Amino acid sequence: MSLPGKKKVVSLSLLKKLLPPLRRRGKAVVFTNGCFDIIHAGHVRYLSRAKELGDILIIGLNSDSSVKEIKGNARPIVPQMERAEVLSAIDVVDYIVIFNESTPIKLIETIEPDILIKGADWAGHLIVGADIVKAKGGRVARIRLVRGKSTTNIIKKILKLHQKR
């Protein structure tokens, strides 16, 4: 049995082979990254907006080990392959590459996206890889997040409900 959307989850080496023909056809490559731990409407709206800015949407998905490094030992809630499976089911997502590092710098250097996307909560000067993308003639876009929609808020709500029991 194969996972739905499995063809969207690719290695970086395969992605390097897939991108040149797309670029020759004039397709703009959009890249974003994140943990996408408990996927919610805010994620879907963010990814939909990212896809509107280009043609091919690639997600750098933090591996379980990198999520732990960034968010602490209690995270991720959902294992990486399940997070990848859920992201694969979102129509606007074209490819997903799981990475182990704490930042996606290696992915950005390799993919050389035309458009690098981050949430508007990131200050422009702190966006990893922005300098690389701009140096290659690309651009960086910051997308406004949906107020109150976050994995952290969902976890807090669940814990609060559990404490009332």
How would you explain this protein's 3D organization?
The chain is of the alpha/beta class. The chain has a single domain, classed as HUPs (Rossmann fold, 3-Layer(aba) Sandwich). The protein has helices at residues 12-24, 41-52, 64-71, 80-88, 105-111, 130-135, 151-164, and strands at residues 29-34, 56-62, 95-99, 115-119, 139-143. It has a 5-stranded parallel sheet with strand order 3-2-1-4-5, sandwiched between helices. The model has no long low-confidence stretch (mean pLDDT 90).
Keywords:
165 residues; alpha/beta; Rossmann fold; 7 helices
pLDDT averaged over residues:
90
CATH topology: Rossmann fold
How large is the radius of gyration?
16 Å
Distance between the termini: 39 Å
- The domain tally reads 1
What is the global morphology?
A: globular
**Number of strand segments:** 5
How many DSSP H or I helices?
Answer: 7
The main β sheet shows up as:
5 strands, parallel
Relevant CATH superfamily: HUPs
Helix content estimate: 40-55%
Q: Name the CATH architecture.
A: 3-Layer(aba) Sandwich
> What pattern of helices and strands is seen along the backbone?
HEHEHHEHEHEH
Q: Which strand order does the major sheet show?
A: 3-2-1-4-5
Low-confidence stretches: none
Which class do the helix and strand fractions yield?
alpha/beta
> Would you state the CATH class?
Alpha Beta
Short description:
The chain is of the alpha/beta class. The chain is built from 7 helices and 5 strands, in the order αβαβααβαβαβα. 42% of the residues lie in helices and 17% in strands.
